[in-house]
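Sequence in, structure out.
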Amino acid sequence: MYGKKVWMIADGYMSNTEKGNLVSHEAICVLNLSGEDAHIDITLYFENDEPMKGLHAVCKNERTNHIRLDKIVADDGRKIPKDTPYAVLVESDQPVVVQASRLDVSQPEYALMTTIAY
């Protein structure tokens, strides 16, 4: 069996920058090899605000899901704020592998960062 049911990403931040058709964003990249569809709950933690809950996604069995954090909407209709640091808790009902990715287009030389979650 591959993966874990709980993953954390301590450094989250989306710049409010767009250049042409490129948008600064982050993604939670999920790989599911569990044998069942994985139902994923995402919670964000902020420095100066209450946690943001109610973010959900599904990763089908033997598939990947690149969950774009600039596009996901919480149960109450809120979107993740831009230009605000946060941390992410990813909880799945099936073992999955999670990787965090960030595209930053705020500088003339775009930056792409990726790391395995903890």
